[in-house]
Design goal:
The protein is of the alpha+beta class and 162 residues long. It has a single domain, classed as Bacterial OB-fold (OB fold (Dihydrolipoamide Acetyltransferase, E2P), Beta Barrel), CATH 2.40.50. It is 17% helix and 32% strand. Strand 1 and strand 2 form a beta hairpin. The longest helix is centred in the N-terminal third of the chain and has 21 residues.
Length: 162
């Protein structure tokens, strides 16, 4: 993929994160209300339990879900440059169980910087998923000091960051 196309994708993704952060609503579409998934025994995706528990990225991606809480994990593929427009975010690309990559956005205006995890490190995360054709974005991976949004987190080597 040409560098200009890749750069445009990350610019659009960063804009979506900023817009979603500033204009987010308090409602979300739970995975349980989405149409049933097709029977795919190789998929690690599952519908979210009706208890309001977060779903996983595979299910949210499959169902094109916007603004839903997810809790999942994967391996660090690479770090992207910080997004310095609006609220500042560290960004990393994580490969999840279904083989897709997602961008994790971590607000460093609300939480301390993350250490730079190594490529191949296992991470777990909890945050708000926004679908896109590239795999999606998970943001709100930090605490919310105003308590208007569910706190998110990132875990690596036994440490929780929020």
């Amino acid at each position: 993929m040409p560098k200009s196309v890749r750069a445009l994708f990350f610019l659009v993704a960063a804009i979506l994160v900023v817009v979603a952060t500033r204009a987010r609503t308090t409602t979300s579409t739970p995975l349980a209300s989405q149409p049933p998934r097709g029977a795919d025994p190789s998929s690690s995706a599952r519908p979210a339990p009706s208890t309001g528990s977060p779903g996983d990225v595979s299910a949210a991606f499959h169902d094109h879900v916007q603004k839903t809480e997810v809790e999942d994990g994967g391996t660090v593929e690479r770090w992207l440059p910080d997004d310095l427009e609006g609220s500042r975010h560290q960004r990393l690309i994580v490969k999840v169980a279904n083989g897709r990559t997602i961008m994790i956005a971590y607000n460093i205006d609300l939480a301390p910087r993350l250490p730079e995890f190594s490529r191949g490190d296992s991470v777990r995360f909890h945050g708000e998923y926004i679908w896109n054709a590239r795999g999606g974005i998970v943001h709100w991976t930090h605490h919310d000091p105003s308590h208007k949004h569910e706190d998110g987190w990132i875990r690596n080597h036994g440490m929780m960051y929020q």
